Structure formats: structure tokens, C-alpha cells
Amino acid sequence: MDKSVHIVAYKAPTRIRKKIENYSKNLKASQAKLINYGLYELFMKSPHKSTPEHIASYISSKSFKMKKDNYTLRITEEYYKKILQMKKEVEAINKEEYFDNEFLGFLLCYYFDKIAFYEKKKVNDKLKTQGNPTQVGLYFNKKLKEKINDVSFRFQINAGMLVFDILTDPALGQLPFKGVPNNIVITDEEKERIIVYMPKYLHEELNQLPLANSFIAEVRGERYMSKYKL
User: Fold this and answer.
1) Which of 59, 168, 189 minimizes the C-alpha distance to 113?
2) Quick one: pLDDT at residue 22?
3) Which superkingdom does the taxonomy of this entry point to (predicted)?
4) Which residue among 4, 51, 126, 143 is least crowded, i.e. fewest CB within 10 A of its CB?
5) What is the model's pTM?
């Protein structure tokens, strides 16, 4: 992924700004990392759910009350190019032109309404009521840890949010994992720790399972990387 950085501005409705601020606090991630995770999910993880047709239909069916404020954000050049290309295609579909900062605001609205993994009702409600996350150390084999760190660096995302996503991704089934992991080999090689901030409800749920937290995270991590070809 292109690592050159582009500074962009965006507008957003009050409700989206509140979501960004609240999730940033609840997931112990900067607002920039939170938004970059949104771009990762939109463009890299779930592009089939965020096609120009999806975005165009969403924009044309909604009424947006954007705040007057402009917020700035650093994103990779690749994300910037994808946003501009998406904007061009959506404008052609809707036969309407949008300002760049306005369109990025539309994308953020779409992300929170349609894509964000932590917006699913169970996760969202528990994040609202439980506040600050718990610091947890999870152990992964060296190769998987390197993959997690590499994905975090390539897409400019927070490693803790990536692990949270790995543990809660419905495509991998409910905890601990979907079916018996007969195609995953977990070796006894020396493990390396990743410190993550995990929502309290998720840590409590993991502790109630008859398997070690790190084993569950490792198996799901291998499957996640394979499923999304990371």
C-alpha cells in the first residue's frame, strides 16, 4: 500500500462526530485511527458492501445535516485515490457533484450505518454502557504477530481494533470459532505478546470460555488473515 500521506478535510453530522469521539474513547484508539479503520473496512475488507452503487443509493435516500466545521485527517495516498475515484463514480450515478469534504462525510455516515463491525447491536450497546476498555496481553506465534503488525502498518489502523475485529467478526462464527479448526495448525513455538485494549464485555466473554484467550485469538487470527487474503 502506498505510504505517502495526504491531508484531507471532512464534514460530518453531529451524530457521526459523537460516534467518532465515543468509539475513540471506548476502543482506546485515536480518532484518525478509527476513521482509517473505517476506510480499511470500506475499501479493503468489504469492498463488495460499499460499491459506488451502494454509496450512491445511500446518499440519494438520505438527508444530511452536516456541521459547518471542517475536520482534518491524514490518510494514505492510496485511500485518497480510492475516495476520489469513488466520488467520481457516485457523481455519475446520481448526476450530482459533491465537494470532497462533503463526500468523505457521506462515506463516514455510510460506514457507521452499514459497515462498522462494532455497530452491530450487541457490540454497540455494550460499548456504550461499559466505557473504557481493559488492557489485555494476547500471545501469538511470531509469523501471525508479524502479519497483524504488517496489516496495521499497511492500512494505518490500530492493532487493538484489528484484534477486536478478529474476535468479533461474524464471518468467523461466534466465539470461540466457527466449527472445529481442522485446517489450522497451531505450533508450540515461542509466542510473542501483543498488548491490546479490549472492551470489558469481550474480555469477560473470553474468560468464560474453556480455552485460553490467546489460543482463541490465534486460531481466529489465522482464519481472518486467510479469509480476507491479508
Assistant:
1) 59
2) 87
3) Bacteria
4) 4
5) 0.88
